[in-house]
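In this supplementary section we document a worked example of the pipeline. Step one takes a protein sequence of length 413 as its only input; no multiple sequence alignment statistics are reported here. Step two produces a three-dimensional model, which step three serialises into C-alpha cells for compact storage. The input and output of this example are shown verbatim.
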Amino acid sequence: MKKVLTLSIVSILIILNFSGCKVNKPEKTGTITSWIRTYNAGLCNLLEVEDGFLVVGFVKSSKDKQNNFLLMKLDSKGNEQWARAFREEGADSTYIRDISETASKGFIVTGSFGVAKVDSNGNMEWSKKFARSSILSVYPNENGRFTVLSATSFSTALINPFVTEISLDGTLNKFNFVKQFLAPIEPFNKFSKTSDGGYIISGPYDEQSSFIAKLNSDGEVSGGCNYIKDYATKYLNYTASNVDEETTKAIVSSLDIQSVPVKIEESSVQVNSTLICDKSLKKVIILQVDSSEISVNGAKKSIDTKPVMKDGAILIPAEEVLKVLVATMSFDKNNAKGTIIFQDRTIEFWVGKNGYKINDANINTFDPLHPNAVPEIAESAVLLPLRFFKDAIGCKTDFDSKTRIITIIYPAS
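The serialised model returned by step three reads:
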C-alpha cells in the first residue's frame, strides 16, 4: 500500500536513482523548510554546505550525447546558483562517485576520472588519477588532508582495495593499507569509512543479489567468520610501481539546469538478508620440502624460505601459511617469542623450546611423534612443525614421503 511522503527536515531533495551513488543526509538546524524539485539531469549525491546544497550527478553532452559528470550549487530553497559539467579528455563517459568539502569551501570529488579539486564556484583546479585504479570514496582528515579509498586490479581475478592520504594539491602522502580480495566481481560499488575506524564495502554478488562486508581498520575481515564466500582477505605486498600518480585533463562547460515541482510517493518493501559466512570454502595450501614455491588453491608463487625435514619432522615457514589463513604473527627477537592471533585464539611459542600456549592453556609438545620438533629460525623466517597447523590452527595436514609434498587444508572438515 502506498502513502504520501511527509517532509519534516530542514531541506530535502528526493532522488530515485539506483546507480550506487551516496546521499549525505543534512542535519536538522534552524527554521524547518521543505520542498521537492526535479531536475533534467541524473542526480546521485547531495552535500549540505553553509548556504545551500552541492549536488552531483551526470548529464549528457548536447554534442555527442556522452555522459559528463555534473556539479550544481543550489541555495537553501533548491534554486540553481551555478552548474558545471566535466568530462575526462578522451573518455567516452565520465561519472562521479563521492564528494567532500574542503576548509576553503571548495570540494574534493572522486570518480572515473580519478580525484579532482574544485573551487567554491565550481571551477576545476586540478585532477589526478592513480594508474590502473578506480578511486571510490574521499573523507576529510583533521590535519586538513583527505583519505581516499580506492580499488585496483593486478589480475583478472583479484580486486585490491587500498587506503591512501592525499594533500590539497593531490600529492600522495602515505598508504594506510593495501589488501587483496579474491573476488569474481568488478571493483566494489561502495567502499565507505565507519565510525569505529573500519570500512564497509558492498557490491554485486550475483545477478539478483548483493553483498556487504565489514572490514576492520587494517582492511581485514575479522571475527568468527573466516571467509565470506569468495571475498577472502589476505595481505598484499605493496610496491610503488603498482599504484602511482598520473595527471589527466578535464573539459569544463556551463549548463542551464531547469527545475519544476514534482510529487513523490513512498511504498514499503521487505528485503531478505542472509549471512554468507561460508565455512565450506577451503584453502588448499601445497608446499614441497626444499622447494621455494607455494600453491594456494592452485595459484602458485615463490617464497623466500623453503620447508625442511629435520629428524623426521617437517618444518614449515609459518608466516607464509598464516597469511593465507588471515592470521597475524609477531616475533620478539629479544625473547625469541612468537605470538599468533587467529580468530579467538592467542598462541604463544618460543624458538628452540618444545610446547606452546593457546589462550594461556599449556600444550606440552609440538609433535608427539617427533619430540625433538621445535620452532627454528631459517633465513630470518620462523619455521614451525607441520603438526602445529593441525593441532593449534585446525587444519588437515598430509605429507607424501615419496614426492615430499606437503598439503595443508583449512578448514579441515
